[in-house]
Amino acid sequence: MIVLALDSTTRDGSVAVWRDGALRRVESGDAARGFSERLPGHVLSLLAAEGLAPADVDVFAVSAGPGSLTGLRVGLATIQGLAFAAGRPVVAVPTLELVARGAAAAAIAGGAGDIGACRDAARGEVFWARWRLDRSHGDDAGRIALDPVDNAMVLAPADLVGRWRALSPPQAVAGDGWPLCQEAAASHGVAPLLVETPPLAAPLAERAAVLALAKQTVSPHAVHPVYVRRPDAELARDRRAGTASPAR
Prior knowledge:
- There is one protein chain.
- This protein has 248 residues and is α/β, with parallel strands linked by helices.
- The protein has two domains: 137 residues, ATPase, nucleotide binding domain (Nucleotidyltransferase, domain 5); 100 residues, ATPase, nucleotide binding domain (Nucleotidyltransferase, domain 5), CATH 3.30.420.
- 36% of the residues lie in helices and 24% in strands.
- It is built from eight helices and ten strands.
- The strands form two sheets. A five-stranded mixed β-sheet has the order 3-2-1-4-5, sandwiched between helices. Strands 8-7-6-9-10 form a five-stranded mixed β-sheet.
- The longest helix has 18 residues.
- The chain is globular, with a radius of gyration of 18 Å.
- The two termini are 31 Å apart.
- The mean pLDDT is 92.
């Protein structure tokens, strides 16, 4: 199986190829160039480096958000277009899950039994989700199972730390949003293990291969972004109309 994976929800973004049961290549993008400028060229050049064309790919994978709105939409459109042209299915994985999966092994090695994914959501807020780490219920390849504790949400750092008074603090945290929370966390004596996450296209490619083998794919037109917090343009439109509705 050949999987082409694209993350465009982080500042750098990344692309990866999973082939015959292993990650063959992963590259981060050039943050100095916008996603609309570098995609799909980066994807095509990575495939070419592996001697592949889009028609050779069995499954296309994309990080579904939340993240940079422009990057998210450009990435989704790129993967949808390539998958549609090749007649192949798509796997979309939420970005916070990818942060946790990419850091899970290091978190367990550090003695943590759970992990929180924390990403900068701008506006003084963070995107957050949390899982228990369970190697005993992983798959035969040694992949770690994630059991949800907190579903994806967006909130101010002080509110996130306050939430832990009821749920207990996380034992490990990964993601670029944690620096925003450190001051509030320190004031409550919270100091989780900080774990680095690899370029998200790497855990995305691996996860997509697992889901594809389990027949958990969708057609290109059925892929939808995960916003968690609704875009500014939609909120402004609803304010003008005097309505409001939650994010997906």
